[in-house]
Amino acid sequence: MSPYIRRVRRRTYTMIAWTMEYNKLKHTNITKNEITYWDIGMILPLSAGEISKIFNYVWQHCCQEIPPVEPGQSEIIKKIHRRGYRISILTKRERSTAAYVAKWLDHHDIYSDDLIFLYDNTPKSDILIDDASNLVDITSPKIGILFNQPWNKDFNWPLRVNTLNEALQVML
After folding, report:
1. pTM for the full predicted model
2. Which of 71, 101, 74 is nearest to 10 (CA)?
């Protein structure tokens, strides 16, 4: 059975476009680095519905402005796959944005064996590279790798990376 990489959260890079849209709407100048909690409503005066509405708008109208998580991301993911890992991209979102995510992945030549859209919080992974608290449900023999982001600096997790290339090295 081949090992799996299940998730590199879309939110990591979506936050750049999200903050740009938020700034346009609210006439502010917030950056991704200022989003220091996973629950954006703890930082900004927005309801969960308003936060979701901006995410949906960004995917539907600004998805080309969403950059890859790092330069060379496409090739790094292909290297991981060539080493025998199955690449499954899991993303939690509203159904109306699913087609835009697929287009974004194609535009950036991001390889995956599976593209899975989640509508609940059920953990489904063997190796999880994530940027938030989804790692809490990981139990041995599964592996959780925390992808460092401003909103997870206080999250206590032993295995952290700053790039997918670092994750690749950890997995060797």
Report:
1. 0.68
2. 101
